[in-house]
Amino acid sequence: MMTLINFIVFQLLSQPAILLGIVALIGLLLQKRPINQIIMGTLKTIIGVLIIGGGAGIVGNSLAPLGDILNAGLGIKGIIPTNEAVLPFAIAHFGSMGALIMVGGFITNIILAKITKFKFIYLTGHIMLYVSLFVTAIYMSLAHLTGIPLFIAGSITMGIYFTFMPALLNPYTQKITGGEDFTIGHTGDVGYWFSAWLGKYIGNPEHSAEKFKLPKSLGFFRDSTASMAVTMVIIFLAAVLITGPQYVQEHISKDSNPFIFAFMQGLTFAGGITIVLAGVRMMLSEIIPAFSGISDKFIPGAIPAIDCPAVFPYAPTALIFGFVAMFIGMIIGMFIQFGTGAAYIILPGIVPAFFAGGTAGIFGNSTGGWKGAIVGPFIIGVILAIGTGLLIPSTGALADTGSTFGDPFYATVGLIFAKIVALFS
Q1: How many domains, the chain?
Q2: Residues with Cβ < 8 Å from 36, sequence gap 6 or more?
Q3: What average pLDDT score do residues 276-300 get?
Q4: Are 114 and 2 in contact (CB under 8 A)?
Q5: Which domain holds residue 33?
Q6: Which of 117, 119, 152, 159 lies 20 to 30 Å (CA to CA) from residue 304?
Q7: Highest mean pLDDT: which of 81-85, 171-175, 335-339?
Q8: Which phi and psi angles does 348 have, rounded to 5°?
């Protein structure tokens, strides 16, 4: 039985392309579409998600050296909050029960969507796995739950999370997309909600980051690919100058001239984002109509919750604003940890700063314009660094691995959840 469940979780549900492909296939079958449309819609959904993943991989690989350069320049060592880094340890310690809880949570999500007014189905497979492993770690480490009590508690917890977190973001997602039939399911959720909520009080959505007036000579900034390329090249070059070209060449760029290396990494980043945007457009054009087949049949009005890159095309300038703002916030948070003698020092994570911070910038921009795209992500960046450091001791066997979960949810709601579990235990 466990072998089957492990296959379903680790080989099917945790693979976003396969999960969304299955959703598209079922939806198209329920609509009784012609066989050619079923095959085309299913394949284009899977390929669209694979394109997003490929682009995200390029983005992540292009950003990784930037974190190394800046950490060397700042002369510090610590823990970089990255979900992918902690995953192998989490699976090793909590994988089997985490897999069961993920399945139980997904079933609970479907039941809640059926019987309540919150018609949201969580479809970001890898995020579902990460959060399920996190919840399992907390219940096992702090409440010492095992067996059926652990499965029941974890499944209910995950079902509530899968259902209500997307509901929290849905009004703002609708504002960003102009009413598209999807919302966001990602562990940057707390940061997205906070940035959108705060934006209403500090800015004006009419002053959008996307409306910046530029002289004709800088008109290329209106193109998302060009603006990201120029911005990231400048950031990489500045990082090389701060750290020192000699160090960068000896330890990071190796045979490449450090400035040429910085230039190419910035352009590679822009290329990765362009790929992500192309995949998003392909995936959404297929999955949204297909999902309506499932919702109409089983859960009328159901809305899919999908990964955060789905909103990237709507505000690419705000994406960059949020990314830079959260990264700076994480640096400030790191120095606060130094000043307070924190047990764990959380280094600025480039990948969470981009995906969680950039998306928070888009949400903040939707309600507060360019100010919302900056202030909310900055504050969340500070909280992410400090909260993640405070969370580590609660993660049991993961605390000594030198890695930790790395998105705003874990540093805020996740930290509160851990404290409550510890209190009642």
Answers
A1: 1
A2: none
A3: 80
A4: no
A5: 2-424
A6: 152
A7: 171-175
A8: -60, 120
